[in-house]
Sequence to fold (151 residues):
Amino acid sequence: MARQNSPRMRKVNELVREIVAESVLDLKDPRIGFLTITGTETSPDLRHAIVYYSVMGTDDEKRETADALASATPRLQREIGSQSKLRYTPKLEFRVDPAIDEGLKINQMVKDLSEDRHQKSDVRSQESSLLDSKEPDAVGIPTSDGSESGL
Fold:
């Protein structure tokens, strides 16, 4: 039985990903948005494959793309069967790639932190320039006649 990380399974996963990615380009479904097939995980018995994808757009466009992929699944499975020499044609299941959304969240967090740091730096420089611009107060020293002398 082949393991998921064996060289054979990596080749099978890449083959399935390439065939699906090329076949999706041929689909004429207007519901498919800006779509990228990011990876696949094929079961060791080659009967099932999870196809990960990312799609840019609004939530409605993402839902429409998911619906379009679901309706195109039989055609995509036929393409895998005709273009590969696999013993079995895997049943496809499409899932949104969570790594893409997580990467976008991390990028936004880094951007927010950078902006906060920049704002704090600006406040510090403004405080520093205010302190530098103030003249020191004259210190009053009492003299022998009772008046204060400023130094």
